[in-house]
Amino acid sequence: MSPSRRTAARSVRMFALAGASAALVLGTSGSALATDPLGIGQFSAAASCDGSKGVITVTATDATATPAVVTVFLQNNNADLKRIGEPTPIKGSAEGVAVTFAENWAPGAKYRVHIKSGNDLDADIPILEAPAKACTGADDAPTTPSTPSAPSTAPSDTASTPAASGTPTRSASQSDTTAPSASNAPSPAAQESNLAETGASSRTGLIVVIAAVLVAVGGGAVFFGMRRKGTGNR
Question: N or C: at which end does the chain have fewer Cβ atoms within 10 angstroms?
Answer without folding.
Answer: C
